[in-house]
Amino acid sequence: MNPGPDSDGKFEVVSAGDEEGSQRGTYNTNAYYFSYDALNDSIGSAVTLTQWVDYLKAVRDHYQPIDRLTIFTHGNYGLIHLSDNAVLTYKTVSNPDHEHYKQLKRLKDEGILAPGSHILLFSCLVAGDDDGKKLVQKIAELTGAYIHANSEYTGNMVSDSDLGTLYTMDGPGADWDLNIECDSSGCDDKATYVMLESPSKGETDVDPDYINFGWKPVDGASSYCFNLKGTNAVTLIWDDTNGCGLSAETFQAASLDPGKAYHWSIRAMDASGKVLQASEWWSFTTIADTSEELPTPNILSAQYIPNKCWNYITWNAVGTPDDGVYYKMYWGTSSDVTDSSELAAPTTTTDYGHTGVLPGWTYYYRIMGVAADGRESVLSDVVPVSVPADAAQNCPLSSLPDTGQTICYDNSTSIPCPQPGEPFFGQDGNYSINPPAYTDNGDGTVTDNVTGLMWQQGDNGYTNWYQASGTADATYNPNGAVDVCGDLTLGNYTDWRLPGKKELVGLVDYSRPYPGPTINTTVFPNTKSSVYCSSSTYAGYPDSAWYVHFGDGYVGYYLKYYNYVRCVRGGQ
Fold first, then answer.
1. pLDDT tens-digit series, residues 43-65
2. Bridge partners of 41?
């Protein structure tokens, strides 16, 4: 059937990226469907938001203004991943100078969307927190449309022989309700939830050997479906194949892994198999197995390195590969260091370079090992390191590179950079401190002369976070077999690792405009204007990691899926 208005007289356009998890079919045979390249890969560059809006305008020109725009794409809390080159956040859509703001506004200003139009945003978790609701509301304001989004996962999990496990549409009864509705004035949650009871939300001492899940009954429900996800919050342990058809409001599970986080939810079904209500996803953590103590790491060496301007500490590895041990380094300027003292960024390596130390001061260090199941070792003995009093003669005042920001702003727009005493003086654009400086070592490595870090000049392509960091995961990196950075040998060095969030941000040159790449392309050629992942897990959602987008320098977090990887070595 040719595209055109449906039985309600509405013209629908369906947009879907050609990536895993995208739309797999809807039921309006009158709709106009188009897919696009959403990934930067060997096939070519992913679509930009400008190209995407241009295509919608061409559809409007050929047919009529769009009454209903249905979008299938990946998402996360406060983030819409339309493509690798179009990652929408509240920050990008709220900035009048940003391309995202300008292009979304075209949908209303150029009449691409019809008055009173609706945008159906099938994208997981987008409106699941306050930033997400602000993002969706801002899109409603710019486009003039009513936006329908979801605060939870969108779609059913099914198995596909080519794509593995994914969220997809598998029938009119699928779990595709969009519970968040927004216009320019605000957002409402329209959902009616199954009320969960036990284990309680966020419970941290659940017995892994026996768990009794319970929820309140739902009127009209013929059966219930129980879903349970593992630590990565993606792979289902109980799903539609083994968790449905429950006649009572209870489910028993046993033999879960100790010391792990899990997520569970319930769907109430009618006699025809249609979803009546779905619950929120609740998380809980099983009790760690403390029957086998983790050995205490011993500090092997601790000394000040003059040419690096840092204290360098090494220690021995503890535990087995199956323990998945990482290390916490506590430090202070007095010898009474405890696990309440300053904590450096946790690391899976057995060395650490402590930057920013002050001349004439003595620093004290202790190391703790932490297993993946939560077991912690005893803190190591305290070891001191003294920084020479004359270290200031050889070290810069700060080890942070300048951002490259040269434009100044008032409360609403860019302005000539103010002088001392004038309003808005003192912002980033007024200063240039520690200008970025690099040395191309000629062996595939680049040294940052400000931070002392050594970087991989190219990148390792597109891989998931677990493989990039060498972290074991049953789905994405069984037994931790792949360690992209840890296994890298480059420039005769083997101590490469995935960079932390702050280290990765240090490469961003904010003087380079969107769409980037926002980096020194002379020393880092072929950098993608896309997402590069860091080793830093997002504390509020441990299945996500912080990333830096080198299209505009945006720093955000996203599920530990596939991103680009550039490895680093040296102190953190």
1. 667 788 999 999 999 999 888 99
2. 44
The residue type of 411 is N
Q: Which two tokens stand for residue 35?
A: 């897919």
Are the CB atoms for 571 and 310 separated by under 8 Å? yes
Q: List every span in the chain annotated with CATH 2.60.40.10.
A: 196-286, 299-393
CATH number among 1.10.10.10, 2.60.40.10, 2.40.50.140, 3.30.70.100, domain 196-286: 2.60.40.10
Higher per-residue pLDDT: 162 or 317: 317
8 A C-beta contact, residue 66 and residue 117:
yes
Model confidence pLDDT, tens digit, residues 404-423 = 888 899 988 889 988 877 88
What residue ranges of the chain are covered by domains with CATH 3.10.100?
436-569
By C-alpha distance, which of 556, 507, 513 is closest to 533? 556
User: Residue 220: left (phi > 0), alpha (psi -120 to 50), or beta?
Assistant: left
Query: Distance between CA atoms of 75 and 153, rounded to whole angstroms?
Result: 9
Confidence (pLDDT) at 33: 82
Per-residue tokens: 431: 């200063």
State how far the alpha carbon of 483 is from the alpha carbons of 120, 478, 559, in Å. 39, 11, 18
pLDDT for position 477: 84
* Residue tagged 């720093």 (tokens): 555
Interacting residues of 331 by C-beta distance below 8 A, sequence separation 6+: 337, 341, 342, 344, 354, 363, 364, 365, 366
* Measured distance CA(187)–CA(148) in Å, rounded: 9
* CATH H-level superfamily of 299-393: Immunoglobulins (2.60.40.10)
What is the residue whose two structure tokens read 């046993």? 254
| Fold held by 436-569 | Mannose-Binding Protein A; Chain A (3.10.100)
Distance CA 154, CA 156 (A): 7
